[in-house]
Amino acid sequence: MEGMQAYGAGKAGGAFDPVTFFQQPQTILRIVSWLFSIVIFGCIANEGYINRPNEVEEYCIFNRNQNACNYGVFMGSMAFLCCMAFLALDVYFPQISSVKDRKRAVLADIGVSAFWSFMWFVGFCFLANQWQVTNHDDNPLKEGGDAARAAITFCFFSIFTWAVQSFLGFQRYKLGADSALFSQEYMDPSQDAAGAPYTSFGGNQANSDSAFDGTGGYQRQDY
After folding, report:
1. What pLDDT, on the 0 to 100 scale, is given for residue 195?
2. Can you point out the beta strands (E) in 23-71?
C-alpha cells in the first residue's frame, strides 16, 4: 500500500524529501522556465532600450516599438512569479489530503502551463518579427544586439518548457485517484471480515471458499 498515490503523490503527511523533489522532471522544468524568464526580463530591461548618439530619449531595440519591450518585460516578470508560485505548490502538494483539491491543483497546472506556452509562442513571433524589420541604422554602435537575440531565443525555448509541463500535468491528471486509500467509499477488508458472523469450519467451508473466488463482491487488489 505504500506505493499507492493520488495525482502523483502519496498520502498526506509524509516527510518532504528535497532530493527526490529536485530530481522530478516537473521540478527541473519549472526551474529551467524560471531561469529563462529571468534571462528574457533581464536582457530587455537592461539592454533593450537604446538611442542614437544625437538623441536623449531611449527607444525599444525592437523596431523602436515600445509594445515589444513592454511585452517581453511583463511576460518575463509574470512568468518568474508564476514559476515561483507553482514550485511552492509542488512542495505543498503532498500535504493536500483532499482528492478534489489535488485535482483542482493539477488542472490549474495544466491550464496555466498551456497558457504560458501559447503566450511565449506569441512573444517569440512578435519579437522575432519586430527584430527582423528593425532599422539597424538606428543603432550605429550596435548596442544590445546580443541581448535582443538572446531574448528571442529564450522565448522560443520557453514555448517547449511550458508545453512539456502541461503534458506532465496531464499525465498526473490521468493517474487520478488510483488508490482505494483516497476513496471515501473505501472499506478496510479486515474490518469487513471482522464484521461477518463466525461460522464453523466444517459446515461452511464451501461458502467460505466461494466468498473469495471473485464472485462474492470482492475485487482483487495488487498491493
Report:
1. 46
2. 49-50, 59-60
Residue type, 83: C
Measured distance CA(77)–CA(45) in Å, rounded: 10
Distance (Å, whole) CA 179 – CA 156 = 39
Return d(Cα 64, Cα 130) in angstroms, integer.
9
3-state helix, strand, coil in the chain (%, to 5): 65, 5, 35
Helix intervals (H) in 133-144: none
Give the sign of the dihedral formed by CA 108, CA 109, CA 110, CA 112.
Answer: positive
User: What are the phi and psi torsion angles at 6 (to 5°)?
Assistant: -130, 120
* C-alpha distance across the termini of the chain, in Å: 5
Q: Which amino acid is at 128?
A: A
CA-to-CA distance for 57 and 54, rounded, in angstroms?
10
Q: What is the pLDDT of residues 59-113, one digit of tens each?
A: 999 999 999 999 999 999 999 999 999 999 998 888 887 888 888 999 999 999 9
Q: Tens digit of pLDDT for each residue in 114-135?
A: 999 999 999 999 999 999 999 8
pTM of the model: 0.73
Q: Check residue 15 and report its DSSP letter.
A: P
- Residue 4 has what pLDDT? 46
Strand, coil or helix: what is 140?
coil
C-alpha to C-alpha distance for 61 and 81, rounded to whole angstroms:
25
Cα-Cα-Cα-Cα torsion 151, 33, 76, 112, nearest 10 degrees, comes to 130
| Band (212; pLDDT cuts 50, 70, 90) | very low
